[in-house]
Amino acid sequence: MTVHIPFDNSYARLPDQFFARVQPTRVSAPRLIKLNHDLARQLGLDPEALSGPEAAEIFAGNRIPEGAEPIALAYAGHQFGGFVPQLGDGRAILLGEVVAPDGQRRDIQLKGSGRTPFSRGGDGRAALGPVLREYLVSEAMAALGIPTTRALAAATTGEVVERETSLPGAVLTRIAASHIRIGSFQYFAARGDVEAVRRLADYAIARHYPDAAAASQPYRAFLEGVVARQAQLVAQWLQVGFIHGVMNTDNMSISGETIDYGPCAFIDTYNPTQVFSSIDRHGRYAYGNQPGIAQWNLARLAECLLGLFSDDEDEAIAQANEALTSFADRFNTAYLGGLRRKLGLAEEREEDRALAQDLLERMAANKADFTLTFRRLGDAAADSAADAAVRSLFEDGAAYDGWAGRWRQRLAEEPQDAASRRAAMRRANPAFIPRNHRVEAVIEAAVQREDFGPFEELLTVLSAPYDDQADFAHYADPPPPGGGIYRTFCGT
Ligand code: AMP
Ligand code: MG
User: What are the CA-CA distances from residue 348 to residues 344, 410, 423 (Å)?
Assistant: First the structure.
């Protein structure tokens, strides 16, 4: 069965300075280790055809499918606050785009497929561990209902990748609404190329914010749209305990999807200052800093667009500021709305934020597991006999009791019946998240023993995060005492 991918490439039609045409590097022994059948179908592709030997060649970069026009995209970015005028796809190659049956245009990109003109000192490769991490975590995010790039396939290459040790090489096939980043705008703005910024903005509007095109000030409407989506996105991250880890401007997608899973991780015990990434020495991208950083990044995007807003600089800055200040409201509304759902509150009250904050502070002081606390609150909302299972998560159970009384009182003032409240809470509070110790164990089995069974099993569990899955209940457990892994490394 031959592979047919109905490419329809639009980015490759943009001016030459937007990308470099480049071929993936050939590898010695391509082997397809995972194909995402559901996603293939969503893209209108035939999973059977994508499972054969030809597919391994394609997903490892040895064979360019008909219609693909491989390019590496140019972008810049602020990395940990410092501006780098040229980054670009140093280890990723965009094969092209497909318009899926749902009408959405999506990028198909190989990550780890060899050097490009943007590789600088890097080898353009990816090791198997980071490929599996991105596969698991991005698919978990999708199942949680959070906008994200997806993983279509993972292939090993037969090559050895040199990091601190020698590691098996792999390629991830990533699907994204697009790969336009805040840093894509910065690349042209840093060169003073206003026409390229305009061209990119027009492209991004057409592809992601078509309503902005009809607004009286399309570029401002575009900025407001990006602000709105990123505010929503970061609120959703916080609600599941996700830490991105490298929220550099080149890792923030204009489409509003989570992108570039490197040293990302989910928190176990609730701690707003939690950091995982080994390179984030000052906690810039700590869990609780993420909204502020998103806003900072959006200000960098706004700076790039100033020249499109108005010829009058003061007027342009005023417009940018208005759009940027909308972030706080949008974030707070999304975040508070999420907390209400997590607590089973159907009505909006002034004191809801204080109620939620009080719980979070008690969780932090008592090292309560974030995911389990909220999941078990669903049972406690329906029956106070279930309180014991929540309070056992707190070092001092009385800290929970002190809060639970207030919460119950509040619930009693709402008309919602217990069964439907519990059902709604279960849809807001996942049982299963990709806990870091599980992800690390899966990677170790694959890398050390070529055993992909644990990867498959964890992926299956994470595909239904809101179901109880009695056979896999242990996957909901926090790490055993001393078994947590709180250092993650970049996916390079
Ligand atoms: P990241 O922090 O992983 O988002 O990557 C930042 C920049 O470094 C991007 O321009 C990447 O393309 C580039 N990069 C990361 N790893 C490699 C690698 N192994 N080879 C070449 N470029 C890389
Ligand atoms: Mg990146």
Answer: 11, 11, 19
**Residue appearing with tokens 């119950």:** 408
pLDDT band at 329 (very low <50, low <70, confident <90, very high): very high
CA 463 vs CA 140, 293, 475: distances in Å: 6, 29, 12
Q: Is the CB of 119 under 6 A from ligand 1?
A: yes
Show the tokens assigned to 40: 């293939």
pTM over 0.85: yes
Q: What residues pack around ion ligand 2 (CB closer than 5 A)?
A: 251, 260
Please check whether residue 421 is in contact with residue 346, taking contact to mean a CB–CB distance below 8 angstroms. Answer: yes
User: What's the pLDDT tens digit per position in 14-68?
Assistant: 999 999 999 999 999 999 999 999 999 999 999 999 998 899 999 999 999 999 9
- Phi, psi values for residue 146, rounded to 5°: -105, 130
Q: How far apart are CA 433 and CA 437, in angstroms?
A: 11
* Known active-site residue 250: yes
| Burial zone of 47 (CB within 10 Å; 0-12 exposed, 13-18 middle, 19+ buried) | middle
> Residue ranges of the alpha helices (H) in 43-89?
53-59
The domain ranges of the chain are 11-179, 183-341
Eight-state DSSP code of residue 258: B
Give the single-character DSSP code of 253: B
Give dist(CA 326, CA 334) in Å, integer: 12
| Contacts of residue 284, Cβ cutoff 8 Å, sequence gap at least 6 | 80, 81, 293
Give distance in angstroms: CA of 125 to centre of ligand 1. 9
CA 460 / ligand 2 centre spacing (Å): 27
Q: How far is the CA of 250 from the centre of ligand 2 (A)?
A: 6
CA 401, chain centre distance (Å): 35
Q: Is the minimum distance from the CB of 422 to ligand 1 under 6 angstroms?
A: no
